[in-house]
Amino acid sequence: MAIQTRKMPLLLGVLVSLHSPLIGKTISGLDYKVQPVVEATDEYGNLDVDYMEGVTLSSKGEGILGGTLSQVAIGGIINYTDINYSAVADNEEYNLIASDMNISDANSGLLMSDVVATKLTFTQEVSPLSFNTGVNNDFTTDPIVKAVNEQGLVDVNFSEVVTLSHNGTGIGSFNNNSITALNGIATFENLTFNYDTTATIELVANDQANITSDLARALSSSLSFEAKTSVNSIVVSVKDNETQWDTTARFDNTNEVEFDDVDGIKTATITVEERTIKVAVVSTGAMQGSVESKDTEGNTVTSSLEVTATNSNTIIDAEGNMNTIVEVDNGSKIKVTVGHDGSIKHEVQTERGLTVVSSTIAGADINVDKRGNITSTSEVEKNGFKYKAIITTNVEGYTQSKFIKVNIATGVEEDISNTLKESLSYDVGSSTSIVEIENLVYIRVETPLNSILVIE
């Protein structure tokens, strides 16, 4: 009596657990180093040498199986020569399935597709792409470089140091331009770049560390460097009848200035040693300025200047000192200074003499009204109160002092000017200074009437 046997294909080779107890690993996008072999056997494992059917390979995974997937058996054996698998991500797991639509399918063991990087690529470009020469440029958007294969997949096992350089002929200097890749990604946070030549160049990413085979270098988008613009000032012209007044603000050429013009307000911002200095000029010719500094406790405070009089001229020097000159109708000349350390000073020069008021307390305010009268305000906090020293000098050079005590909790103000030992008014030529000593406010006046105020 004839005995019928059931035949089924069986995967052999590197793809079969019989060949290795470990998960097989293939390189994504490349032909297998060891190609799969399928044998047609009966249920006892005997090779059917008469089997000559076509057998097709397919895969169970997210990626794509490539190569010549259908082959005809010869002597019961099917040999594949160019099979490859392209994963959608590194370390993707998948299976191979062999089928001839008649006998039972065969499945390989679990396989892993390894993405092996062949090149670096910029997946996030720097921003902006236009810069000034000779300036330490801090990018708004920092670059990201990835190690990828030819299909653009990231090799998560890549952990070498990636370094940025440039391909220009000028001299360039970087900060934070060498980063160790994490999971195949190098993110260049806080990257800065200073380039000395007018040119169009590219950033170059490389991993030349001889750890493994160096990858193909990557080039960024083109970066354009131009000589720093000669525009370093704000000018607003105001015409009153037949007279034209100009309010100007000028900046030292060594400072990098960011200009803006919105709704008729021209602004300029500079940063000097992490301190921000701002100037704004409105269409009426009024000017506002501010200088950041540190108080005695190390807190960041802002000293401010407001000039509503037109025809003011302001110069910001390399250290961030703000100097403003105002000429008024009576011929007096006013000079106001907000120092980079937060100190303030105003001077009124008249035919009779020079009146000076100064304060070393950071965070003070100065206001110059339309006629040229000046009010300087300094304050300190102590025991739940704010003590404000207010010094006013008119265009004639006369000075008055006033003290206000403010309850921080309630906001209630109290005029305590009667604590002054002498008159509240000082003649032309006086010199008044406000200082803070151990949380005490002192007003010192040099005038025909010498006086001193101490708040306990």
Protein model, in words:
With 456 residues, the protein is mainly β. The protein folds into three domains: 8-114, Immunoglobulin-like (Sandwich); 119-226, Sandwich (Immunoglobulin-like), CATH 2.60.40.10; 233-454, no CATH class. It has no helices and 43 strands. The strands form eight sheets. Strands 25, 26, 27, 28, 29, 35, 36, 37, 38, 39 and 40 form an eleven-stranded mixed beta sheet that branches. The chain has a ten-stranded mixed beta sheet with strand order 23-24-30-31-32-33-34-41-42-43, with no helix packed on it. Strands 2, 4, 6, 9, 10 and 11 form a six-stranded mixed beta sheet that branches. Strand 38 (399-407) and strand 39 form a beta hairpin. 31% of the residues are buried. The model is unreliable at 1-6, 12-23 and 449-456 (pLDDT under 50).
Mean pLDDT: 83
Query: Poorly predicted ranges (pLDDT <50, ≥5 residues)?
Result: 1-6, 12-23, 449-456
Gross morphology:
elongated
Helical residues, percent: under 10%
Strand content bin: over 45%
* Cα-based radius of gyration, to the nearest Å: 39 Å
Number of helices: 0
Q: Kindly state the number of beta strands.
A: 43
